[in-house]
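re: that chain from earlier
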Amino acid sequence: MKNSSKKFSACVVSGFFSHAAHRVPDGTYVSIHGGLNLRIHPSSTLCTSAPSWILYYEVLETEHLYMRECMALDDPMWLVQVAPHFYNYESRAQRTARAATQPNAVESKDVNRASNWLFV
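^ sequence. v structure.
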């Protein structure tokens, strides 16, 4: 990605960090904040590419909840970097330490796993 594209993406992430969603196995998305089941609006150019992470401007409610004005998010860790007051990501070491005190906790090092994301 070009430097100017990274700067633009960082600006969008800093403004819309609370509007992030992650693709789940059935092809829909789940918003990180609120757990809404979302879909990319059919008019979006991202509808056919289905990125793993996405930022959206608004949600349109019809028979489904559709994200409009979307942008693919290449690195979800930008959310933690730009909005540490809102997001926290638990590393594998932190999760393992917590799992030792909580025997039913699931361990995963996958940054794309939405359950690894915590809110501050």
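The longest strand covers residues 53-61.
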